[in-house]
Specification:
The structure is a single chain. The chain has 143 residues and is of the alpha+beta class. The chain contains 3 helices and 3 strands; from the N terminus they run αβββαα. Strands 2-1-3 form a 3-stranded antiparallel sheet, with no helix packed on it.
Length: 143
Amino acid sequence: MPSTLLLLVLLTFSAPAWSIYKCVSGDRTVYSDAPCQNGAAGSMKEIVVATPATDSASAQKQLQQDKQTLQRLQQRRHKADAQEERQQAQRYKVAEAKKKKCAESAQRVKWANEDAASAQPKTAERSKQKARRAAEKHRLACG
C-alpha cells in the first residue's frame, strides 16, 4: 500500500508533460509517442501535453482517502487482534480449569483405590464399588 501511494505521488509531481508527435504524409496524419520514421515524407511536429492542475488536486484527494482507509484498516486489525487475545485468554482459562478438575478427580480415584485396598473385609465390597465409580467419573470428565 505505501509503495502504491509513493508511486502515485511521484507520477503526479514528476511527469508534468508528455510528447506526442504528429507526422503528416500527404493526406495522411498519424499521431504517435515516438518520432516519425525516417521514410515518412512530411512534417514532424511535437505537441506538448501538460498535466492538468486538477490531476494534482484529485491525487491529493485520493491520498487523503487512502490515508483514511489505511487508518480504518489498522483500527479494524487492532480490534481483531485484541478480540483474538481475549478469546485466547478465555480458552487458556478454560483449559487450566479442566486440568485442575482432572487432577482433583485423579486424586479422588487414587484415594478411593487406597481405601479399597486397606478396607476391612466387612466394608471391602463397598470401598471397591466407590473406587470403580470414582474411576468411571474420572474417565468421563477427563477422557
